[in-house]
């Protein structure tokens, strides 16, 4: 069994490319990330970490007072000693409560700040980089679980070593007066134990990263199953999904067994450390006493002080063990925080909207994988202030073409001009100010209907909101609801059909009043008559619609891909 553990550790250690230097760099990054909280965090952490020193001082004061009272008993001395002790105790309890409260508030603010940074990075990050991290459930797992894990760096991972440091320095000062050899003994044991803990910490980190990845995979499977329950049952694929889930659980069980073996070994190592720390030190002190090097009453004192020194140094190792989990979470956090952001600077101020063609495609080539083109040598144009319908079979590049126009998808070769200006010269903010995009899967959020229509605009009047709703043919439905535009979606037992949700999303796009409207199957859940009426209500806009509806195809210029 011991040989098996040894082989396991060697095999895991072979694949470790995370050095202590990189660990400390990540640790530095974690603290640089919260520089706005340095003052409050520093005060709270130092105050909480110093409590062990104050407790020891209180104990020393208590024992000293008891000895003094026994030697020189008097009622006045007893009263003064009790009063002094109670006063200092009250001061300590009040200050300790304040520091604990400040630390709790600061740590909460820090975790909220990190989540806000991650959320902002996801909102403003480049789509292709976000997709490389994983699905929405993976991002959700990182924002929640990984932040909670990484936040322990700011808590016990720092406070405990600092607490041990304060106690250990005091122990060294005491042993200087007793015997220097005991300090060397404590340091030798400390660095042996520290090396062992660091080695075990690297193994813990590898296992924990594997566990986090497996947890994310299981969470994604849960999310997909819960989101698509009806489809799963109708397609009769429950057994297939359950078998896949069982495979994930088996991997989870294997990793947990590895972790349990490592934890069992750590327990054995801790036991050996305790034997050497206390029993070994007592035997050494007895030997020093027999050689008249130390006094009898210094044996227990020396044993306690050696223990404090060893704890001070080995806490670096034990903290390193805990730190591996926190750094694993931190690594996954910075994957999100460091996402490249889109360029939101305005590059083009003056655009000539009077040209014949709003968009021109010249020899456009787009591929997601090498030599697998979604669009190949595509040449066409979108008429300005007119309706153009993109048609064709699934997978022919209709949605890809919209992504190219919006700047979400880069193209390998060719040229795209938007109002006679090269598309690549536009910034993200330019394109966002010019384009309203209405997808098939509508974005409907918790809140009122008014809030959902006005989302994305800051100064829209009620009249403008109602006009947009009229153009989207949803106004009459809204005003017949009990609370009209203030009706709370989801929370007032209001059931919206797929077509009504699409109408609200269309009203939102119209309210933004941008010159280019892109509809990606945005009329799929409503009848052709209603879709035609909405399209006819839109004037003086360049409209591009992806649709397979034959009635919509008759309304404008068709480009078949």
Automatic annotation (TrEMBL):
Keyword annotations of the record: ATP-binding, Membrane, Nucleotide-binding, Transmembrane, Transmembrane helix
UniProt cross-references to Pfam families, sorted A to Z: ABC_membrane, ABC_tran
GO BP annotations listed: oligopeptide export from mitochondrion
Domain ABC transporter: 359-561
Gene Ontology cellular component list: plasma membrane
Molecular functions (GO terms): ABC-type oligopeptide transporter activity; ATP binding; ATP hydrolysis activity
Keyword Calcium on entry: no
SUPFAM superfamilies to which the protein is assigned, alphabetical: ABC transporter transmembrane region, P-loop containing nucleoside triphosphate hydrolases
Boundaries of every ABC transmembrane type-1 domain copy: 54-325
Superkingdom of origin: Bacteria
Membrane topology of the entry: Multi-pass membrane protein
Subcellular location: Cell membrane
Chain segments annotated as transmembrane: 27-46, 53-73, 85-107, 158-176, 182-204
Keyword Lyase applies: no
PROSITE patterns per UniProt: ABC_TM1F, ABC_TRANSPORTER_1, ABC_TRANSPORTER_2
InterPro entries linked: AAA+_ATPase, ABC1_TM_dom, ABC1_TM_sf, ABC_transporter-like_ATP-bd, ABC_transporter-like_CS, P-loop_NTPase, Type_1_exporter
PANTHER family: ATP-BINDING CASSETTE SUB-FAMILY B MEMBER 10, MITOCHONDRIAL, ATP-DEPENDENT PERMEASE MDL1, MITOCHONDRIAL
Protein name, as recorded: ATP-binding cassette, subfamily B
Protein's organism: Clostridium collagenovorans DSM 3089
């Amino acid at each position: 069994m011991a040989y098996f553990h040894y082989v396991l550790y060697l095999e895991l250690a072979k694949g470790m490319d995370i050095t202590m230097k990189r660990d400390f760099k990540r640790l530095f990054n974690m603290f640089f990330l919260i520089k706005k909280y340095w003052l409050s965090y520093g005060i709270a952490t130092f105050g909480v970490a110093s409590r062990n020193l104050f407790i020891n001082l209180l104990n020393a004061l208590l024992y000293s007072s008891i000895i003094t009272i026994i030697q020189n008993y008097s009622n006045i001395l007893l009263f003064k000693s009790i009063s002094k002790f109670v006063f200092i105790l009250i001061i300590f309890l009040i200050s300790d409560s304040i520091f604990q409260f400040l630390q709790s508030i600061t740590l909460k603010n820090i975790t909220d700040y990190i989540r806000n940074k991650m959320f902002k990075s996801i909102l403003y990050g480049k789509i292709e980089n976000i997709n490389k991290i994983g699905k929405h459930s993976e991002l959700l797992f990182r924002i929640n679980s990984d932040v909670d894990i990484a936040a322990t760096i700011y808590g016990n991972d720092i406070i405990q070593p600092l607490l041990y440091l304060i106690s250990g320095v005091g122990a060294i000062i005491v042993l200087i007066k007793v015997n220097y050899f005991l300090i060397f003994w404590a340091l030798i044991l400390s660095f042996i134990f520290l090396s062992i803990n660091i080695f075990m910490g690297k193994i813990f980190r590898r296992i924990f990263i594997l566990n986090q990845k497996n947890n994310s995979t299981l969470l994604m499977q849960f999310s997909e199953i819960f989101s698509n329950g009806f489809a799963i049952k109708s397609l009769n694929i429950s057994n297939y999904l359950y078998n896949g889930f069982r495979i994930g659980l088996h991997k989870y069980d294997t990793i947990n067994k590895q972790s349990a073996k490592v934890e069992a070994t750590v327990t054995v190592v801790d036991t050996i450390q305790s034997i050497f720390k206390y029993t070994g030190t007592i035997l050494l002190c007895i030997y020093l006493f027999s050689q008249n090097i130390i006094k009898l009453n210094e044996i227990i004192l020396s044993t306690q002080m050696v223990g404090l020194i060893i704890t001070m140094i080995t806490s670096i190792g034990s903290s390193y063990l805990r730190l591996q989990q926190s750094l694993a979470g931190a690594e996954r956090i910075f994957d999100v925080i460091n996402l490249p952001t889109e360029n939101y600077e305005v590059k083009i101020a003056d655009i000539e909207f009077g040209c014949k063609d709003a968009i021109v495609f010249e020899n456009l080539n787009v591929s997601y994988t090498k030599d697998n083109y979604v669009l190949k040598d595509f040449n066409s144009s979108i008429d300005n202030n007119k309706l153009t319908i993109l048609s064709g079979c699934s997978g022919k590049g209709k949605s890809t073409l919209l992504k190219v126009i919006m700047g979400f998808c880069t193209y390998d070769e060719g040229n795209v001009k938007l109002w006679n200006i090269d598309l690549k010269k536009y910034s993200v903010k330019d394109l966002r100010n010019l384009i309203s995009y209405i997808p098939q899967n509508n974005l409907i959020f918790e809140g009122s209907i008014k809030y959902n229509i006005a989302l994305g605009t800051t100064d829209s009047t009620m009249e403008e909101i109602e006009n947009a709703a009229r153009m989207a043919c949803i106004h009459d439905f809204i005003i017949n609801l009990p609370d009209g535009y203030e009706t709370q979606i989801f929370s007032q037992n209001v059931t919206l059909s797929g077509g009504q949700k699409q109408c609200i999303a269309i009203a939102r796009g119209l309210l933004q009043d941008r010159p280019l409207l892109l509809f990606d199957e945005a009329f799929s859940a409503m009848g052709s008559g209603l879709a035609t009426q909405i399209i006819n209500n839109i004037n003086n806009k360049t409209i591009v619609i992806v649709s397979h509806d034959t009635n919509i195809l008759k309304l404008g210029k068709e480009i078949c891909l």
